[in-house]
Design a protein that fits this description.
alpha+beta; 31% strand; elongated; STM4215-like; single chain; 147 residues
């Protein structure tokens, strides 16, 4: 039985970034001219797994790709570091779950997005993708002893 969905974890990571003043898009960027810099959290499937035969303890351990976009490679590098500073060892808050500190598990080089031209500049934005480990277990509930 699934007691939580991974979407609540994605929203918790978004909240961490937004609290630090970082613009976040979830899954897609629908604005044709988004203000830079920004991040986009790619939404993984969030496949839970049972850790006991009774299916009463459902765990999550998922890779969460976070794309960082800025108007130049150097600015993207700086923004990526800001995002890393926020997320490294951060503990998302998810109701009913105990989340573990996030860990950076991979990343791509910063590259130009040649499919996009920044209006008025004839330049391409730059992006890089970091992969973060997000994991949680159900919060333990205490049973009050009968009098």
């Amino acid at each position: 039985m699934v007691t939580s969905d991974f979407g609540s974890h994605v929203l918790a990571v978004r909240d961490l970034l937004e609290a630090a003043g970082i613009t976040v898009h979830l899954g897609d960027v629908t604005d044709p001219n988004p203000t830079m810099p920004y991040t986009m959290i790619q939404i993984p499937p969030g496949v839970p797994f049972d850790v006991n035969v009774a299916a009463k303890q459902v765990e999550f351990a998922e890779d969460l790709p976070v794309t960082v976009v800025d108007d130049s490679p150097l600015n993207c590098l700086r923004t990526r570091q800001q995002v890393r500073d926020v997320l490294d060892k951060a503990v998302p808050t998810v109701e009913g779950r105990v989340c573990f500190p996030m860990r950076l598990t991979g990343g791509t080089r910063i590259s130009p997005d040649t499919s996009v031209v920044i209006p008025g500049t004839n330049r391409h934005p730059a992006f890089g993708v970091d992969t973060w480990s997000v994991a949680s277990t159900p919060a333990q509930t205490t049973v009050e002893e009968a009098p």
